[in-house]
Every structure is written in C-alpha cells, then in structure tokens.
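Give me structure tokens for this 129-residue protein.
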Amino acid sequence: MAEISNKELIEKAKSLVKPRKIAHGFTVGDVGCALVTDKGNIYLGVCIDTTSGMGFCAEHSAIAAMVTNGEHKIKKIVAATKNGVALAPCGRCREFIHQIHKDNLNTEVIIGKNKTVKLKDLLPYTWDE
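Here you go.
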C-alpha cells in the first residue's frame, strides 16, 4: 500500500469543506479533517459549531469514525479550510488525540503546506506524566 502524501491528505480534508447553516443559524462543515491510521486506513470528519460546548472540531469527527471502526493509533492527521490551509489542532484536540492512545504522541500533525510536527511537540507536558 502506497503511503499518502501530505498534499493528498490535505486535499481529502479540503474536499469535505461544504459550510452550511443548520438550526438556530449554527454552521457545520467549515473545516474538514483527514487522518491515516497505523494500519493505513483513512478516516474523515467535519466540524460542527454550536453553542454551550456541544459542538466539536473536525478532528473529533474523524477520530470518532476511526474508533467506531476499532482503530486507535493515528499515523498522520490534518484539519483544513476550504482553501486548503492546514490548521494546527486546538488544545482540546491535541489532548483528545493523546487520550485515544498513548502512542499518538508520535502522530505526525500537518500544520502547513510543507510543515509537520509530532503531537508530542505540540503537547509537551501531558496530564499523565
């Protein structure tokens, strides 16, 4: 199985971005996420922005799809806008990725067109140390 390039993963995330309004004027789908597991499977998700902390980031959506399919280790992940701009994960997402599996500290996080970092560099002091 050929490894997916960062550009291809960004394009997959970008292709999901189809912002639309839902009830009460909330927006969904303005950020897309694509991740590759250690087994080479790809999972996708979009954000859902609502009030009262009930919404979630695109990374949460893609990770939920991964967990639903019995996987937990993320090899590479990216969240992107409709313009293909890669976004660094927020603090909540960084912690969520780590809590899904301890080995995810080695996840390659795409944070720019030609820039990646390990999750452990974005989350240097974990709660369980």
